[in-house]
Amino acid sequence: MVKRIRKCYGHMKDRCYNPKDKNYKRYGGRGITICDEWLNDYYAFENWALSNGYSDDLTIDRIDNDGNYEPNNCRFVTVKENNNNRSSNKRFTYNGKSQNLVQWCKEYNINYGTVLCRLRAGWNFPKALLTPPIKRDRTSLIGKRFGRLVVQAYAGDEYIGSDNNSRWICKCDCGNTAIVGQNKLKSGHTQSCGCLQKQRAAEYQHNKASQRHFLSNDS
Q1: Which pTM was predicted?
Q2: Which terminus in the chain has less CB density within 10 A, N or C?
Q3: Are 10 and 80 in a shared domain?
């Protein structure tokens, strides 16, 4: 995972600062840059990525296509979303006025990711735009253990479902990574990436076989 984040970081720098890069004209060539925080510190970018929904099947995307690479203007989306379904290009009408989602969020001073998650969860546009955001805890579970899982980072607002439940990136003792809902962590419902259930199932089958063997010998 981290190896791919570093690769993503390198491509981002090439697009913005390397005139020999094939995509330079569409990025650095028209003034797109990387914020100083990320440009001068790879680990700042890596930490932001892990805390904002990064996974190996997603790609970094700038919310405002004319804006720079910086925390408030970036997110992770599927390649299909990035190429074909940019919500920033879709226009929404409210009170007789039509704008794209980025413009509405700027006008009402609300986080783009929050409104986008609400729309994906089925909210109508006025409700998604006007409902005050919930102040989410994005740090208190980091480093805590729940069964075999240790919380690494907040997964990002884009992982909030219709249940309004925060989700966290967790590292399992077996080495796998899983994204788990906060309620399931705190209730003890989820204690591993799935390996614990597999182990218990294998133990059950083993005990069942041993019992059958014992009964056949006893008879």
Answers
A1: 0.42
A2: C
A3: yes
